[in-house]
Specification:
- The structure is a single chain.
- The protein is an alpha+beta fold.
- The protein has one domain: Chorismate synthase, AroC fold (4-Layer Sandwich).
- The chain is built from eleven helices and 16 strands.
- The longest helix is centred in the last third of the chain and has 24 residues.
Length: 375
């Protein structure tokens, strides 16, 4: 599979080990299926890079698929019994067929490897400007990770997350969630969960408010909802906003000149219910995006369905799948969020080269300071 990224400035040194490490993280997590023992994802750059640096041209990345079996009818026979919750039935109706195979293969989350590669590449750029993304699994079922993520502790939490088989930055919660997934596997059932991404260091003013398609929260929501099996996206306080009065929701504004060099420009908030976004634009506070992944639609025990050829009641078909893929989904979410932040950052700052972007970023920061005029 391939990913094409346009708009990357020239002169950026590519961190291939980092990109490969993100691809490897996407393959991990307790509850994954046999496919992950087949693939060994690594990125190859086919264009846009010379001598390890970007040249300003479109960047084409390729990730090899070791398991290509679509024309092998013994290994990939027609699927006539759609799985509830999957794209099977809707795709069969859309494409006027009683075989769900083409739809289920194309709808597979395998394609998220390309999105992780593109997101990881964008993070290499963001790091040049002190912008970092941190994603993790908040929980699932009756398990909720209690940690509070801050600009001061996220790196320590990342180390705990990376030691967890389920990508949770709290050892006790991790163990409890793994127990739930193990029980689901024994019952031939599946488990979903909550993912969360925090972005630190993004300056104010990314995104836009003059057109609906410029709104960064809308872009982020689309990117996260586009991940397979995601059913809900929240920014900051999210759906909880509806349960509180306005005075309890909106974040008061104060100014501290001694902190003018920080991303918020000195406009300090005592809380961050907005999740770093107001009116479709970043306000300099950490960006907080939450996503809900439903349980995998392929159950070992099946679910009530029908045979599309006869209309007779049947149990749904079984395809090689996971019991829980929420850890992998958190990696995908972390990288698609970072990609949208990088896209908005490039749009805001501009520059054909990395050095031009550095100059522009410095100028934008100066203009944004109180008393320095308006841009």
């Amino acid at each position: 599979m391939s990913a094409l990224v346009e708009g990357m400035p020239a002169g950026l040194e590519i961190d291939v080990p980092f990109i490969d490490a993100e691809l490897k993280r996407r393959q991990g997590g307790y509850g994954r299926g046999g496919r992950q023992r087949i693939e060994e994802d690594r990125v190859r750059f086919l264009s846009g890079v010379r001598l390890g640096r970007t040249i300003g041209a479109p960047i084409l990345m390729q990730i090899e698929n070791r398991d290509s079996r679509l024309d092998d009818l013994e290994r990939t026979p027609p699927v006539h019994r759609p799985r509830p919750g999957h794209a099977d039935l809707a795709g069969a109706r859309k494409f006027d067929t009683d075989d769900c195979r083409n739809t289920l293969e194309r709808a597979s989350a395998r394609e998220t490897a390309a999105r992780v590669a593109a997101g990881a590449l964008s993070r290499v750029l963001l790091r040049q400007f002190g912008i970092e993304a941190f994603g993790f699994v908040r929980g699932g079922l009756d398990v909720i990770c209690p940690v509070e993520v801050t600009a001061q502790n996220w790196r320590d939490l990342r180390a705990v997350r990376d030691a967890s088989e389920i990508a949770m930055p709290d050892a006790r919660s991790s163990d409890a969630f793994i127990e739930r997934i193990h029980a689901a596997k024994a019952a031939k059932d599946t488990v979903g969960g909550w993912c969360e991404v925090h972005v630190f260091g993004a300056p104010a003013g990314l995104g836009g408010c003059t057109q609906w398609f410029e709104r960064l929260d809308a872009r982020l929501a689309a990117a996260v909802m586009g991940i397979q099996a995601f059913k809900c996206v929240e920014i900051g306080l999210g759906r909880e906003c509806a349960a509180r009065m306005g005075s309890e929701v909106h974040d008061p504004i104060t100014f501290d000149a001694s902190r003018a060099s920080e991303p918020h420009g000195g406009f300090v908030r005592p809380r961050n219910n907005a999740g770093g976004l107001e009116g479709g634009m970043t306000n300099g506070m950490p960006i907080v995006v939450k996503g809900t992944m439903k349980p995998i639609a392929t159950l070992g025990k099946g679910m009530p369905s029908v045979d599309l050829r006869t209309g007779e009641a049947q149990q749904s078909a079984y395809e090689r799948s996971d019991v829980c893929a929420v850890a992998a989904a958190s990696v995908v979410m972390e990288n698609v969020v970072a990609f949208e932040i990088a896209r908005a950052f490039v749009d805001r700052i501009g520059g054909a080269t990395l050095e031009q972007m550095r100059v522009h970023a410095g100028a934008a920061s100066t203009r944004a300071s109180p008393g320095a005029g308006r841009s």
